[in-house]
Amino acid sequence: MVGDLHALPKVRDGLSYLYVERCRIEQEEHAIALFDAAGQVDVPCANLAVLLLGPGTNVTHAAMRTLAEHGCAVVWVGEGGVRCYAVGLGKTRSARNLLRQARRWASPVERLAVVRRLYQMRFEEELGPELTLRQIRGMEGIRVRAAYAGASRETGVAWTGRSYDRGRWGGADPVNRALSAANSCLYGVCQAAIVAMGYSPGLGFIHTGKLLSFVYDMADLYKTEVTIPVAFRIAAAGEQQVETRVRRACREAFHATRLLGRIAVDIERALGEEEPSEAAEVTAGVDEDGALPGGLWDPDGTVAGGVSYSGEVEREGGRA
Asked: What is the DSSP string of 158-178?
């Protein structure tokens, strides 16, 4: 494991997320405070993984600085947290894990290995090497379809398939709205963990072409266990305020299943563990201060940055 805590913060020990809307956010000593018509609510942000800012929120510069200093990712989202518009920095200042992810993504052999591991993590039985990706995708489709059918039987909620129109949100049935809201919460937590650990949300392995492709890769590990049962249970309890109730239920489920800790472990498992490389050791010291320069790439290995190499010209027999 990496010894530099700035490179791999303990996101697993943090709180999952807080969704706020129609309020003002200000700095309050070493934390933040939320202000609305009902009054003031103080929020300790040291262990908060992600703050979701919904419509009608105003945040001060001082509050954003405090959130950044405590490594809390800030995500600007749509009504009910359903759409993600922008995201701030996470906890780490190192590119070590991003480079590790990119190496696996860029290698067809290594990418296939990650894809198979991600699928394997969804099944209890072993997926044999003789299975093709097309066959595995078919098995995955059957697994998810069975999860929907099972949740429908257990809750009594009718299920005719996954269907919703972003342009006509209110036109979807309660269970589809609950699923969309629940999955958006899940995406936010997965993105917070990915960014906090220094990975890229966009470099997906199974999913591709979207800025949240890796988020979708990781979130799919937990849908049949967490968001599908929660969404059907909330829909069965009534049609009023489905989105609000499912967000609260998701927060409880994420805490009960220790989801943040599992995401951190599962990312490492999917990508495959490795010891820190010599290149990582060169840049380890600068991770503690984001203002310091990183390393410089060289065919023979990373060299230190922020150093004048003017003497190299004479040593190599060249001229300035």
From this structure: --------GGGGGGS-HHHHH
